[in-house]
Structures are given as C-alpha cells and as structure tokens.
Amino acid sequence: MLSSSDLPETIAIFPLPGALLLPRARLPLHIFEPRYLAMIEDCMKTSQRLIGMIQPERGPSGGASGLCTIGCAGRLTQFSETEDGRYMVTLSGVSRFRMTREIDGFTPYRRCEVDWSGFERDLGKPEVDPDFNREPFMDALVRYFASQDLATDWDSLGEADDEMLVNALSMLCPFSPEDKQALLEAPSLTTRRETLITLIEYALHSGKDTGDFLQ
C-alpha cells in the first residue's frame, strides 16, 4: 500500500471520457492505441506503477478543450497481453490528485505535475457512511437498472460494504462525464452517495439519461 511519501510529483495521464476511477476501487482497461501501449510499458518500469485517470473537458462545440483539474491515480496491479499485442490491465485506485501543470516532453502520451494535498483520506482505511439507509436506496436502484436495461449480481451488491457499493455504482452506471466528475470530486462517501441518489432519482423522474443534469 502506498503512503503519501511514495506519491510522485509527475505521473502519466490517461484522459478517457466517462471512465471513473475512485480510491480503493478497481478499473479494468483494454489498451490498444500505440501511445497508451507505450504508457503502460513505461509505467511498469517505475516503482509506483501509477497512471492518472482524468476526464477531458468538453468545449462549447462538444469537442475536447482540455483536462479537468481533478483526477484519480491508480496503481497497475494486473497485466496481460493478447496475441495481437493489446494489453488488458487493471488499475487499483490509490488517491485523487489536482493537476497543476501539463509537461511538454518526448513521450507520446501526456504527463502532468500533480498535487496530492487535500486528498490524504484516500490513502487511509475504507470510508463508512453512517446515515446510509440501504432499503430505499436499493429499491430505487432496482428501478433504475430496469429503466436502463442493466443487469447485475444483486446478491453481491447487497453484501458489499458502503464504500464498495457506492463507488462501484458511481463507476459503472452510465452517467455523463460531467456527472462522473461530480462523483469523483465528492469530498466524502456520504456526499458521493447523496450525489449518486440524486442522479438516479433524476433519471427515474425524467425517464431520460442523466447527461445534462449537473452541467
């Protein structure tokens, strides 16, 4: 497990719209672009093996205009290579960060200087949510999954602890990149759960995607 003293000042950045990584959660990724194959290879040569997941910002015309300020770094914990040279990897969430400056360099992928301060809780034990009332939450979740034509292992969800449940749903539900960013930036597990409930209830009330709700 990494400590604050292990966290580097510079990390590779993987801007992937809609992909959310949270501390102590796991994100599987399928890597096939040459620049990101190089990123994985370089990452495995470092002692921390960290990659920063971050959302691209959308400009007025809908195209990417930059990067969001806050992302989450994950440690490369699983790796396999397919016969045609693609990589199947898993990142285990370590800590959120604040991007301070993008570095111009010779790597085909993007790199940034980052600030880890303010996210010390991410390196600690799993969070708890003492006010979490699961019964109405799970009832709404069943209706939401039905409305989105989603399937899941309900027994596993019911047995998951508070943090694993809230974070897994935040990562897996088909929310917009803007909504995913709001979930990432939530200062506590309770706030993230409240945001998640708001998004689910809005989707159920409107019968539409949640894409523009938090914009």
TrEMBL record:
What terms describe the molecular function in GO for this protein?
Answer: peptidase activity
Q: Which Gene3D superfamilies has this protein been placed in?
A: LON domain-like
Single GO biological process annotation from the record: proteolysis
Show the SUPFAM superfamilies listed in the entry: PUA domain-like
Superkingdom of origin = Bacteria
Pfam families cross-referenced by the UniProt entry: LON_substr_bdg (PF02190)
- Looking at the record, the residues that make up the Lon N-terminal domain are 11-204
**UniProt keyword list:** Hydrolase, Protease
- Give the protein name, as stated in the record: ATP-dependent protease
Organism of origin is Donghicola mangrovi
Q: Tell me the lineage of the source organism.
A: Bacteria, Pseudomonadati, Pseudomonadota, Alphaproteobacteria, Rhodobacterales
